[in-house]
Design goal:
The complex is a heterodimer. By secondary structure, chain A is mainly beta. Chain A has no helices and 12 strands. Chain A has strands spanning 3-5, 10-14, 19-21, 24-26, 32-38, 44-50, 56-58, 64-68, 73-78, 87-94, 103-105, 109-114. In chain A, the strands form 3 sheets. In chain A, strands 2, 5, 6, 10, 11 and 12 form a 6-stranded mixed β-sheet that branches. A 4-stranded antiparallel β-sheet of chain A has the order 3-9-8-7, with no helix packed on it. Chain A is globular and about 45 Å long. The N and C termini of chain A lie far apart (41 Å). In chain B, strands 2, 4, 5, 6, 9, 10 and 11 form a 7-stranded mixed β-sheet that branches. A 4-stranded antiparallel β-sheet of chain B has the order 1-3-8-7, with no helix packed on it. Chain B has strands at residues 5-7, 10-13, 19-24, 31-37, 43-50, 53-57, 64-68, 74-78, 87-94, 104-105, 109-113. The model of chain B has no long low-confidence stretch (mean pLDDT 92). Classes of the chains: A mainly beta, B mainly beta. Chain A binds chain B through residues 32, 34, 36, 41-46, 49, 51, 90, 92, 94, 96, 99-108, and chain B through 2, 4, 31, 33, 35, 41-43, 45, 48, 50, 55-56, 58, 90, 92, 96, 99-100, 102-108, 110.
Amino acid sequence: AQSVAQPEDQVNVAEGNPLTVKCTYSVSGNPYLFWYVQYPNRGLQFLLKYITGDNLVKGSYGFEAEFNKSQTSFHLKKPSALVSDSALYFCAVRDIGGNFNKFYFGSGTKLNVKP
Amino acid sequence: DSGVTQTPKHLITATGQRVTLRCSPRSGDLSVYWYQQSLDQGLQFLIQYYNGEERAKGNILERFSAQQFPDLHSELNLSSLELGDSALYFCASSVGSSRAGELFFGEGSRLTVL
């Protein structure tokens, strides 16, 4: 079965410092991986995805993610955090095996960026 | 703005009642997904439709049902409501024809059961 895990419930970082939000996955076959951000009382917004190709994927708002097949990870990164990046971040994987209509979301990581 | 519209944004009702949540997908998207987000919990996948047909089912209770209409909008019906059904319900859409496609989420319908 496909799944993703976000091992950290919360990540704290100072403004201007680099940030990393971790995600590991478990899939059969090649993974289709996604990152979403959710601001308070809002819907989820798509940030970026990895389908194939370059392991470093660039997305919205200066975010990027690194796909690492050997470590089955897809960590979200940003070189310099902003206070406005504070939000809930979700990693997701698409089931490309039995039913590609299914997306599996991680439990979410709350990012706190302090001034 | 994702292009996905959900109504109502907020709904307060009593236990035992029935409510209907509505979703209009992005123009051109054939696939609609429903998710439930409870406090302190992640996203729980409920059900997915593609062009009017059910394609995937998640942890959807028997008290809940959904459908997608010919104009592609979708409705999620929640009946015999319990306190534990209080949550944020999200609709998402995607083109559906591409395995690489991402989901686009609406702003959600916040249901409070008293």
